[in-house]
Amino acid sequence: MNEKAKGAFLWGSATAAYQCEGAWQEDGKGISNWDAFCHSDKNVVNPVNADVSCDYYHHYEEDIKMLANGGQNAYRFSIAWTRIIPDGIGAVNEAGVAFYNRVIDCCLGHGVEPLVTMYHYDLPQALFERGGWENRETCEAYAAYAKTCFERFGDRVHYWATINEPNYETQCCYAAGNYPPNVQDLGRRWRAMYHLLLGSAMAVAEFRAGGYQGMIGLVNDSYSIETLVDDESYRKAAHCADLFYNRCVNDTCVLGEPPRDFVEKLVADGYDLSYVLDGDDEILRSGTVDYLGVNAYLRYLVKPYTQGETHLKMSNSGKKGDRVEAVVKNWFELDRDESIPTNDWDMEIYPKGLYNLLMALHDLYPDTPFIITENGIGYHEHLDELGNVHDPYRIEFQSQHIAWMREAMREGVDVRGYFVWSTMDVYSWINGYAKRYGLVYIDYDNGNKRIPKDSYYWYKGFISSLE
Ligand code: BGP
């Protein structure tokens, strides 16, 4: 582990390969499901792609240098599976390995600790066409790919994340249907999520078998689940929502098995669980994580289920009034408090939710360290006449979340790091380029020029104030 970050709290920011790299067909890279989707006639909401995006593939040195100059000692990024093994299974593409070697060495050269995610939504299209995560073959392929990552980068990378967001990804892919394969079928969602978790456990086993140094975790989007009414039916709805969003993933990777009442509910709902095979319980138990990565964006207010079919809807238009909705038949419904502010994508701004979430996670998993692997807020943003971006709303959002995280730490929760989403503006899944999260603005129309926002300088000052 590099000296500067060794043992220190990780203060950083994050990106993901498909969202920022561009260079979609360069140096032997294979096609991913997101490359294919964004070029297909299914990409109708904001029909753009990340073929180029902010062209990080050719700007990574500038981005990492800027991150380091901003006082950050850690950078979370993901590896595109298609750069390492273009069709998901088979020979290693040495040019892809060389690219990530350059990225990792650049981080270390600037005293920045890399936290590397091995899968962040972009699946080799060849595997996607054979069923993707619904097909158990993808677990085996993923574990082999992870082993390659450990072998090639494990001498220098000491923080690994197996999978990004088994909850949100499968919700979007198989329930809301806005991500490929654009399906609305919870049964298929549970199957894909199960295989993501199984694949993650297999990768953890490879990591341990190889005797690599460092920590390996899984990143999930977790939510503080709250109600406006405190009675038995609301508490029951909250419990169901906690199973649906959080514990189905978190219990499985932290404790090594899914919650019993979650499985009972799936059986009661009539889902076919024949994809669970003999011996899987042992794989899950021996593949538990060293830390849980927490992508913290929202709290969810929930209420009891009343009527209607299961229905999940995300807000991808960026227009106020386009609402996120969730009704899960016999489980719960999303509620709302109109007095809480939201951004243009109907995301609640509720910083205390991070404290509530961390306290709840600590109650469930008292021996597990947490890393806040993403926390951020998306806005429509433009350069002003002087060519700057003033983003006081982001400074307020991040500083309040950090304050609540530190309060949870004071009360005994073991948090090891905090990463702003995102390092610079990147492609936002389905929302295109209108939704900006970066500490650094990307002028997409002007050669992808990088322009630090006020929040970049605020974050730098905040980190240095701690020393
Ligand atoms: C998380 C993803 C990120 C990022 C972020 C913001 O769920 O891990 O990749 O995109 O959310 O989400 P969005 O871009 O959809 O607003």
Automatic annotation (TrEMBL):
<dbReference type="GO" id="GO:0008422">
    <property type="term" value="F:beta-glucosidase activity"/>
</dbReference>
<keyword id="KW-0378">Hydrolase</keyword>
<feature type="active site" description="Nucleophile">
    <location>
        <position position="374"/>
    </location>
</feature>
<keyword id="KW-0326">Glycosidase</keyword>
<comment type="similarity">
    <text>Belongs to the glycosyl hydrolase 1 family.</text>
</comment>
<dbReference type="GO" id="GO:0016052">
    <property type="term" value="P:carbohydrate catabolic process"/>
</dbReference>
<dbReference type="InterPro" id="IPR001360">
    <property type="entry name" value="Glyco_hydro_1"/>
</dbReference>
<dbReference type="InterPro" id="IPR017853">
    <property type="entry name" value="GH"/>
</dbReference>
<dbReference type="InterPro" id="IPR033132">
    <property type="entry name" value="GH_1_N_CS"/>
</dbReference>
<dbReference type="Pfam" id="PF00232">
    <property type="entry name" value="Glyco_hydro_1"/>
</dbReference>
<dbReference type="InterPro" id="IPR018120">
    <property type="entry name" value="Glyco_hydro_1_AS"/>
</dbReference>
<dbReference type="GO" id="GO:0005829">
    <property type="term" value="C:cytosol"/>
</dbReference>
<protein>
    <recommendedName>
        <fullName>beta-glucosidase</fullName>
        <ecNumber>3.2.1.21</ecNumber>
    </recommendedName>
</protein>
